[in-house]
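We now fix the convention by which a protein and its fold are recorded. These numbers are not coordinates but entries in a learned vocabulary of local backbone shapes. A record is reproduced here so that you can trace the correspondence yourselves:
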Amino acid sequence: MEINQQIEKAKLGDQTAFTFLLDYYWNEVYGFMLVRTENETDAEDITIETFSKAFNKISTYNNEFQFNTWLIAIAKNGHVDLLRKRKSSLFVEITEQEDQRAQNVADTTPSVEDKLITEQNLSQLLKFIKELKPHYQEVIQMRYFQEMSYQEIANKIEEPLSNVKIKILRAKKLLAEIIQKGK
């Protein structure tokens, strides 16, 4: 009953109703898209786009259907659009002249000097990371060196996803401050 009231308020432009609906249905739509895309960034982008489209077209929503079903249909369409965009960008016709120019591109393989500089920079970065508190070191290491997703980190350290995102954000900010002082 409350959902229908919030939908009606949203149709009238009530911002708190929009916020309520977003909070109420976010996890359902995001979870659905995460399963379909198997990619956190894509799932989040499609979810944001879904709510944006839904709120822009809320006046067309038909109360005979469940609101979450309507949102999921919008999300599915958003996912299909994303796949179409990617597919069309994969196939690009190139001329023989363009192909020849591509063959003449200089070798971009890192030289011995490039590798040495990269190793020195990495060594310096690791030194700076060690200046962080242990719990910040841990999340930075998992996110950027083990390339774990936010959800994987949350599961591993047994903390809510929102806490992990905040910890990583805070760790990056503190690391930036340490690097600035170190220069």
About this structure: The mean pLDDT is 84. The chain has nine helices and no strands. The chain has two domains: 2-90, 110-182. The radius of gyration is 23 Å.
